[in-house]
């Protein structure tokens, strides 16, 4: 890991980053008044291939907000690409060993509720890992895990909605029947990442939050066909809001 940061100088030894962000599909997430200190491929750090899906850049940026440094991971890998749980969480684990104690995750999601429209940001209050057999439901109980978002985000925070997020294996868009079923089980947004990362970060003792960006309405909620290109277009159009939320979160952590 030390080789990765060698090019960024010995300053990290004196003032290592304590905050980290992970951006999802189609999110470039870098403009505004952040100062960029360096950038490199993510593969030497995480061991995850940089040949990621379209919309995932596979790079890592070191930046600063005021006096505090932070790391940004542009993209991630997914279970449907053949990665196991420990491989998916490698980046999170290494961020923790590096000294990251506050983490903000973003992902692109499908809406299970027609009142949540493409482009809206959802602060996740509960997560459900539904990547196992029968969506990990045992005894008729959905294994929701409540997050501790209340400690960092006030009510009405920058117009961000609140909702429950469910992670499924993919790599397909859910059928209309699945959209109805997941919605009736209490989920508002669905995606194919982030829940395992969030669970790992919490287990390590990080303060972690997840912002889901609604990329499309689920099957049956819209007459438009669902495509990955649509996801990336929506993410690009939502970038200003995404960066505003990230800036606010960093300022809170740096204060």
Descriptive account of the structure:
- This protein has 255 residues and is an alpha/beta fold.
- It has one domain: Nucleoside phosphorylase domain (Rossmann fold, 3-Layer(aba) Sandwich).
- Strands 5-9-8-6-10 form a 5-stranded mixed beta barrel.
Secondary structure elements and their pairing?
Layout: H1 2-6, H2 11-14, E1 19-23, E2 35-41, H3 43-46, E3 59-65, E4 68-74, H4 85-88, H5 90-98, E5 102-111, E6 121-129, E7 145-146, E8 161-167, H6 176-184, E9 189-191, H7 195-204, E10 207-217, H8 228-237, H9 239-254
Parallel strand pairs: 1-4, 1-5, 5-10, 6-8, 8-9
Antiparallel strand pairs: 2-3, 3-4, 5-9, 6-7, 6-10
Features:
255 residues; alpha/beta; Rossmann fold; five-stranded mixed beta barrel; 9 helices; 10 strands; 27% strand; globular
The major beta sheet can be summarized as:
5 strands, mixed, barrel
Shape: globular
Arithmetic mean of pLDDT: 82
Percentage of residues in DSSP E strands: 25-35%
CATH architectural category: 3-Layer(aba) Sandwich
- CATH homology group: Nucleoside phosphorylase domain
CATH topology: Rossmann fold
SS content category = alpha/beta
- Poorly predicted regions: none
Provide the gyration radius in Å.
17 Å
Q: Give, in spatial order, the strands making up the sheet with the most strands.
A: 5-9-8-6-10
How many domain modules?
1
Number of strands: 10
The CATH class assignment is Alpha Beta
How many H/I helical runs? 9
What is the percent of helical residues?
25-40%
Alpha-carbon distance between the termini?
A: 28 Å
Order of helices and strands: HHEEHEEHHEEEEHEHEHH
């Amino acid at each position: 890991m030390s080789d990765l940061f060698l090019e960024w100088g010995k300053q990290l030894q004196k003032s290592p980053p304590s905050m980290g962000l992970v951006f999802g599909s189609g999110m470039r997430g870098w403009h505004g008044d952040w100062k960029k200190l360096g950038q490199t491929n993510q593969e030497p750090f995480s061991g995850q291939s940089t040949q990621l899906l379209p919309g995932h850049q596979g790079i890592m940026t070191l930046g600063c907000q005021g006096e505090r440094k932070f790391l940004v991971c542009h993209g991630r890998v997914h279970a449907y690409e053949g990665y196991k749980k420990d491989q998916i969480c490698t980046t999170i684990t290494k961020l923790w060993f590096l000294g990251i104690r506050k983490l903000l995750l973003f992902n692109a999601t499908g809406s299970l509720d027609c009142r949540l429209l493409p482009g809206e940001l959802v602060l996740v209050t509960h997560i459900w890992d539904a990547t196992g057999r029968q969506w990990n439901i045992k005894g008729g109980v959905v294994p929701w895990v409540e997050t501790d978002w209340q400690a960092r985000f006030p009510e009405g925070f920058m117009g961000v909605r609140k909702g429950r997020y469910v992670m499924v294996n993919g790599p397909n868009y859910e059928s209309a029947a699945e959209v109805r079923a997941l919605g009736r089980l209490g989920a508002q947004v669905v995606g194919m990442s982030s829940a395992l990362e969030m669970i790992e970060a919490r287990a390590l003792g990080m303060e972690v939050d997840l912002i889901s960006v609604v990329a499309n309405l689920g099957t049956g909620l819209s007459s438009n066909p669902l495509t990955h290109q649509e996801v990336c277009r929506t993410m690009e159009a939502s970038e200003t809001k995404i960066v505003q939320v990230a800036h606010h979160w960093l300022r809170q952590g740096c204060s």
